[in-house]
User: What shape does this take?
Amino acid sequence: MRDDIKLKTINLDLFYGKFHALKDINVEIKKNAITSIIGPSGCGKSTLLRVFNRMNDLIASARITGECLIDGENIIGSDVGLNSLRKKIGLVFQRPNPFPLSIYENVVYGVKIHNLLKKRNPAEVVEDSLKKTGLWNDVRNKLGESAMSLSPEQKQRLCISRLIAMEPEVILMDEPCSALDPIATAKIEELAIELKSRYTIVIVTHNMQQAARISDYTAYMLLGDLVEYDTTDNIFTRPKDKRTEDYITGKFG
Assistant: This one.
């Protein structure tokens, strides 16, 4: 696998029982870039995203064939340590989901669970993680207060801080702005752009304007198929597949 590729799928199929949710997916996700996955509802966007950290395993009827590689190593198989995988590849959900704990305890929660504090100072972990998401100045004097008191946008930043504290390599975002207003959405988009220098980011979005604004690469999915994958500029200005053109121009979906 090329050095500039972080994630790769090879002939990947996923079934929920008899339903064929992902069909022969072949895609290469570049390192230190933002890749958006777009397409109409029910096309397999979130299902593909969750392949990358095996979250589909939580669904009893799910069955995967083919390969999914991170840094050239296949993560599909019973011998893969899911805890270590999900530490390396973290997921940010649609709605901010802070724990009903203090801001401080939210950030260090995962680090404690994975016993990662032996060589790290908890206070430094909290400060560094909150600074990376631009939240530190807002909360530095109220770390002991409940995370539930934060605004929706601050809660989403806190969830990203909690993930960053785990020192992941990949950040998956499943419609992270769907519950946010336009101003808060802009702040999360700015954050994603800032973070890509340190992380590989894959984002599912229904907002095509968002994909055009922040992503380097875009994948268009339809009915479980990966129709087209290219640079974002090419997808939005020179699509090769008419189905992609119909979707981005509003003729379909």
